[in-house]
Amino acid sequence: MIKKRWLSTGLLLLAVLAFGGAFGLSSQDRTGCQDCRSDVPENCTVIMVGRLASSDGSVMTTHTCDCGHCDWTFRVVPAADHPAGETRKIFHVDQMGYWPPEKGLKWDRVPIDNLTGLEIPQVPRTYGYIHGNFGYMNDVQLAIGESTIGCRKRMENQTATPKFDSTMLTLVAMERASTAREAIKLMGELAEKHGYGGTDSGEMLAVADTKEVWHFEIMPVGPLWTPQSGKPGAVWCAERVPDDEVAVCPNESRIGLIDLNKPDYFMASPNVVSLAVEMGFYDPKNGQPFHWAKAYNPDTVSAANTAGARVRVWRFLDLVAPSKKFSPETPNVDLPLSVKPDKKLSAYDVMVMTRDKCEGTPYWPGRGIQGGPFSNPNYLPYGFELEGKKYNLPRVIGVNRAEYVTVTQSRGWLPNPIGGLVWLAWGAQDTSCFMPLYGGIKSIPRSFEIGDHYEFDRDSARWAFDYVDFHAQVVYAQAIEDIRQAQVAYEKSAFDRTPTIDAFAADLYKKDPALVSQFLTEYCLTNAERVVNAWWKLGDDLLVKYKHMWVYDSKAKKRMPLKFPDWWLKLLVEYNKLQPQPKKE
Predict the structure, then answer these.
(1) Where are the domains of the chain?
(2) Residue 543: alpha-carbon gap to chain centroid
(3) pLDDT for 120-149, tens place per residue?
(4) H or E segment and range at residue 135
(5) Residue 301 to residue 306: CA distance in whole angstroms
(6) N or C, which end of the chain is more exposed by having fewer CB within 10 Å?
């Protein structure tokens, strides 16, 4: 642990008490972290739930799109029939890119402006699907979630030669695949043949259908690859999450030992081992079995030796299986890919988990000085640098830079238009609200298709949630309670009435399948409009209630002072050298 320079002995004592010694670990002193890379991405978290690990038999995936400046817009693409001889144009999509509104909406411009020159034969019929930065759910209940994991520098291929990136792979998979295994094989074959890379390095995709969910990782093979080489233009591996288990991927490779003699649990590109040998990442003569992550994405970090900067693997496992008492000291690479949860998880449990900030652990960002007097866990989300030294801070599951969050459910006991479900929440998880989008819908609100970070827009749904989030930061501990009440009223109620909507839609499907999509579309649009309007009003209410750092009770028409915690006031007295008022004689 490095030495810290505090302004007084009192400050040092308070800091130790507040942070329990876990705060402020220098990146130069991360014990056992010799292989850590400075460019490890920290952008998205994926949760996977097998059907026998869920409370209702759903197969689930998530994606917390934790970019902070990316395009957030969504689209619904309808199913389509295609004549013989038609081709599918392939374009690049920079998942971290930004499209100024004056240039047009992202999904209007990218297919025109970013063509790769590659066209592949079109299939007779493509499925309809819902997508944002990636394809999330198609109309036969194929679902995907994404997390950037990186790879060794020598593997990156940022040239124009590879024609596929992760976004494009998911869009083609949405159009053509009906099962997780089909999707993985399709994406793998396209990347092998036409090359993978561009703006993407190592990527993880959670690929699910109504029966199973797979953890799929794909990486480039270096900048010298060409199609004429006769070698695969990507290396990839996929491991199935057992049906009664759950898993997480938080921006780090999670696949370990692989056994391709078990095709029900492992799939891989033909160069999965040979590329590692060729590049010097693995020596089969050393007697050690091939380990995917240690070969292509080695890392020795843990929650403990990074002061919580890499806490998400441990935190997830501890949340779902506390009985197993996983240690934060264990290197993440040694923690299991998946685990059987102590109790089965509902979709609502998963939604709540996407908001987790390690509260109750030494890694909670809202503790002590970091969170300020109102325990705000959103300060300093990236760590900081001071006097030439870098300091880590906890990187939790629920961060304040999410563009949106998806939770998908693939439910095999229902007809496809009803069984597929995407729960979408705009903006930061803690202040947002999940809304249902059924796989069979024909459209989404226009407010979901527009907006960007740099221009306030009351016609964009995302801005309603940013509006609430902004007002929550000032007096977080109090404001978050108001927001949680709204989440119960609008989010939990939507989850609770889903069985009723399902049942009505299923009866309607038996009578006239054509009417189901119309019913579900109207339901989702109406619910979304109701939630967005409620969040605009919630933002107004928070502004009124906590303006000027007071509490205004609109019903009682009274103004009351904010209560500041004693520990913070004591710190203020010492730091500012305040003197108490003299006692009256």
Answers:
(1) 43-301+325-355, 414-545
(2) 29
(3) 999 999 999 999 999 999 999 999 999 999
(4) strand 135-138
(5) 7
(6) C
